[in-house]
């Protein structure tokens, strides 16, 4: 089939809270982008049909190829979302949406593919020196959950993406303050993973733990209605609530520890890339936050980590871009 006949392509980036949809009408050209709350739809198919109905005026041809990036492990035809209520069969969904091919990949596989095509102005560098071209790149990022993947560029220019579930590794506290936060979380959960803290809900959990710390009982605190990730970060940046600033500092420190752990595990001298919508909201603060100091505080491995650059992804809708690149690879090479 001529390449032009494969467009438009239906793309989706489905997280725990929102589903983003777009139509790729030409290579790397995505239009009709919509963000829909997952809770508003009983199923993925319902959300897709609603999206297509909104785009019908600009949709000259029905898509026959689709690529969905989803925030959960892909282990066969049946997919169960980790942080929302959707479950679906890939094949049944393909038939329901009248697609010739539906590619379903982990959302951080899509993030990795998107990073492979990014320009310098799509990223903000936080410390380090320069990436080694063919060394592994570590991709991670807090959102509704915490995603992790690895990108390797082979010497021939081809790409290999390794999905993972590194957000669910056991959290290891660094100091007495983090032990206190961990103990609070341990009273609520049987397993305290890194994702419990390094996510939107994690900001709230850290705040709750710190509010019980001796010496902070009487400081100004947020009301129950204000206890959201967005308000915590806003109050932290405004300087009105010291406990919110301590919460954000602790969050960034914890992220520095995990990013360093991932970089050491992978030998990620190709760089560390932080994705997701949380960090870009306070990027100016993040540049001077405790993150980078904590990233390099690894004893004998401090010098190894000091040279590794960390990049915050600023580009909009990288999940959709990555889903499109993965689909293109599949159509060209019959693999991703």
Automatic annotation (TrEMBL):
SUPFAM superfamilies: Actin-like ATPase domain
Top-rank taxon: Bacteria
UniProt main location, coarse: cytoplasm
Swiss-Prot/TrEMBL keywords: ATP-binding, Cytoplasm, Glycolysis, Kinase, Nucleotide-binding, Transferase
Subcellular locations according to the entry: Cytoplasm
One Gene Ontology cellular component annotation held by this UniProt entry: cytosol
Catalytic activity as recorded in UniProt: D-glucose + ATP = D-glucose 6-phosphate + ADP + H(+)
UniProt keyword Oxidoreductase present: no
Enzyme Commission designation: 2.7.1.2
HAMAP family: Glucokinase
Biological process (GO), any one: glycolytic process
Pfam assignment, any one: Glucokinase
Organism of origin: Helicobacter pylori 83
Annotated protein name in UniProt: Glucokinase
The keyword Cytoplasm is annotated on this UniProt entry: yes
């Amino acid at each position: 089939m001529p390449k032009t006949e494969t467009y438009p392509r239906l793309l989706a980036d489905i997280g725990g809270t929102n589903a983003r949809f777009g139509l790729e009408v030409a290579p790397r050209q995505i239009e009709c982008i919509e963000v829909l709350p997952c809770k508003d739809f009983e199923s993925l198919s319902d959300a897709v049909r609603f999206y297509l109905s909104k785009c019908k005026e600009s949709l000259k041809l029905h898509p026959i190829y689709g690529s969905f990036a989803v925030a959960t492990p892909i282990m066969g035809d049946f997919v169960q979302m980790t942080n929302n209520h959707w479950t679906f069969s890939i094949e049944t969904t393909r038939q329901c949406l009248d697609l010739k091919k539906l590619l379903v990949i982990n959302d951080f596989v899509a993030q990795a593919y998107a990073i492979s095509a990014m320009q310098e102005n799509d990223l903000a560098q936080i410390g380090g020196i320069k990436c080694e071209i063919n060394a592994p790149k570590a991709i991670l990022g807090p959102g509704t959950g915490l995603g992790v993947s690895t990108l390797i560029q082979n010497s021939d220019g081809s790409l290999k993406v390794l999905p993972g579930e590194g957000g669910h590794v056991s959290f290891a506290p660094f100091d007495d303050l983090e032990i206190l936060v961990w103990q609070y979380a341990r009273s609520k959960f049987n397993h305290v993973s890194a994702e419990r803290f390094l996510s939107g809900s994690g900001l709230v959990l850290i705040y709750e733990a710190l509010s019980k710390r001796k010496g902070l009982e009487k400081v100004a605190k947020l009301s129950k209605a204000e206890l959201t990730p967005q308000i915590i970060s806003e109050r932290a940046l405004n300087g009105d609530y010291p406990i919110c600033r301590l919460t954000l500092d602790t969050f960034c420190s914890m992220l520095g520890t995990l990013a360093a752990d991932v970089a050491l595990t992978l030998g990620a001298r190709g760089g560390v890339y932080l994705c997701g919508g949380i960090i870009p909201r306070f990027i100016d603060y993040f540049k001077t936050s405790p993150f980078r100091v904590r990233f390099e505080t690894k004893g004998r491995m401090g010098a190894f980590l000091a040279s590794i650059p960390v990049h915050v992804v600023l580009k909009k809708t990288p999940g959709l871009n990555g889903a499109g690149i993965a689909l293109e690879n599949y159509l060209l090479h019959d693999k991703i």
